[in-house]
Amino acid sequence: YREAQKHSEELEATNQTIQQQNQIIQKSLQEKEMLIKEIHHRVKNNLQIINSIIRLHMSKENNEKLQTLLSEISTRIQSIAITHQMLYKKEQFLEINAAEYIKYLCQQIKNAFSNNSNIEMKFSFNNAEQQQLPLDIAIPLGLICSEVITNAIKYAFPNQSGNIYIHFECQNHQCQLTIKDNGIGIDLEKIKHSDTLGMELIKLLSEQIDAQYSFKVDNGTIFELIFQKHT
Prior knowledge:
alpha+beta; Heat Shock Protein 90; 2 domains; five-stranded mixed β-sheet; two-stranded antiparallel sheet
């Protein structure tokens, strides 16, 4: 009887120790989640402050080229800020829903342009509604989207009227982003030898996520980006 009682007491003591350790681990996880959430919130706020400063400079600048440059920088910063904003709101601190992210980001880019009322964006997703993108893919992907969408809005439609089609799909961890417009098209030879900042960014960001990209012309410009979504 004494042996059984001793064994029971030892088991109870062990269970209490395990429960205490679990509570410590749970508390530590909650503290880390709160810290990550606060980091995303502060990063988003700091980026918005930087963006506000840039916009203030734009409003006081008469040089058209400099205004354009500042506007492009502002759009890129906004793209990163949107990522942190969505992570903060969804409380998913390491991944972001692909469909929601791409749709919201592209709409925000469109809204940044004043002469966009006759430009429509149409979205389609295949096996992507529930796909989550890790942060190290989401931010470069968002910046690439920003460059392509901005370029289409600015140059594809001389009459400020047209459609931009955004399609995203994932099959067996391979994802493809397609952005197509029905505008005037681009000069593929110029694109191949372009050294603009936008093209350099697309190239560098594609390399960062091990993606392959291409431009085509078929009743407008087609941009395709293919990458692997690692689990």
